Amino acid sequence: MGAAQSALKFAWLEVTGLCNEFCDHCYADSSPKGTHGTMTVADWTNVIDQLSGMGALDVQFIGGEPTLYPRLPELIRHAHGSGLSVEVFSNMTHIRPELWETFTDCGVKLATSYYSDAAEEHDGVTRLRGSHRKTRANIEKALGLGIPLRGGVVAVRRGQRVQEAARDLSALGVGTVGGDRTRAFGRASKGAAPTIGDLCGHCAHEKCAVGPNGDVWPCVLGRFLSLGNVRDAPLSEIWGGVAVAEVLADITAVHGEGAQSCTPPQFLPMCGPCGPCVPSVGHCDPREADAVAGPATIGAPARPLRSR
């Protein structure tokens, strides 16, 4: 399906590169040294208005750690008022009272990453002491407030307690638990050049991402594939432009047409199951794995995609 035939239904809005955690596998290379970029609040509200005008259905605020962006409540309320469904992808360690109020007022959904049921192992991945305790407590608070929440378990280390992490999330009451392997982007690449082969194959299909400096990407992982910049051109012009068509063709050449027809949801919204499945789990849903299959890897050989 070409860009002109594919409606833009979903967008990641990466409002900041600042994060209070410093995970080795961070695809965005965010950290406590990150910044909010050059996009102003007016720029972001303009993008939200454009998305609404283009018929988009959902946005996800992401980072970095989006809750560290001081104007996030304002942007959430603007998106909600524009008729967009809102999800915030957060590490759930730093949620101030104003945000809880905004979440409940605007029907916000939440998503978070969870690495282990063991605090020491989880904190070792995030490099933030106490992160497991804070994340777990805020998961419980969100569910207690009736806020929908998805959990994602990323296989990062050999012998990681991914299955136990998934079971812990389920025990807390998280209804949707997804999984993914470490992908070779950002710090996880260990200096290797990013490749289309390490994407899931769904990038730019009814979705795009907008970064802290206004850059438009086919998804948050595919930031090495530039589509344009919202500070230079309207999003509708970018979405219908040559760059999107070329990127779609490049992705299809690697992943094939079938990558666009799998059944969502998966770890990221609007994405279908991807191959390979989590190496330490061997299945798209960690809860359905029979046994730990092997270590977390980067750039493992692809297995056939499967629908669920």
Automatic annotation (TrEMBL):
- Tell me the domain of life: Bacteria
Q: In the UniProt record, does the keyword Transferase occur?
A: no
Which part of the chain is the Radical SAM core domain? 14-148
InterPro entries listed in its UniProt record: 4Fe4S-binding_SPASM_dom, Aldolase_TIM, Radical_SAM_PqqE_MftC-like, rSAM, rSAM_sf
User: Residue ranges of the 4Fe4S-binding SPASM domain?
Assistant: 202-246
Keyword Repeat included in the entry's annotation: no
Q: Which UniProt keywords apply?
A: Iron, Iron-sulfur, Metal-binding, S-adenosyl-L-methionine
Alphabetical list of PANTHER family matching this protein = PQQA PEPTIDE CYCLASE, RADICAL SAM DOMAIN PROTEIN
Protein name as catalogued: Radical SAM protein
What species is given as this protein's source?
Actinacidiphila epipremni
